[in-house]
Amino acid sequence: QQAPVGRLRVFRISDERVEFLRRLEELGLKPGTEFEAVGSTAVDQLIHVRVHDHTHTVGHEIARHLWVVPA
What we know:
The protein is of the alpha+beta class. Helices cover 20% and strands 42% of the residues. The chain contains 2 helices and 5 strands. It has helices at residues 18-27, 60-63; strands at 6-13, 34-40, 47-51, 54-58, 66-70. It has a 5-stranded antiparallel beta sheet with strand order 4-3-2-1-5. A hairpin with a 2-residue loop joins β3 (47-51) and β4 (54-58). The longest helix is centred in the first third of the chain and has 10 residues, at 18-27. The radius of gyration is 11 Å and the shape is globular. The relative contact order is 0.30.
């Protein structure tokens, strides 16, 4: 399944492990944050996101714990 593309907002994070939340903080992804999903790759399930003018690539493990809604 392809990830949605466009402006999104983090609604909820379903993983509460400290190291996981720390990584999201480094990426600038926390509840309420708006970002742009700019694309994904079907083969390796990588998702490219732009947060506060920085582009990051995240894997399926991070993406599956981010609940998002249209921004």
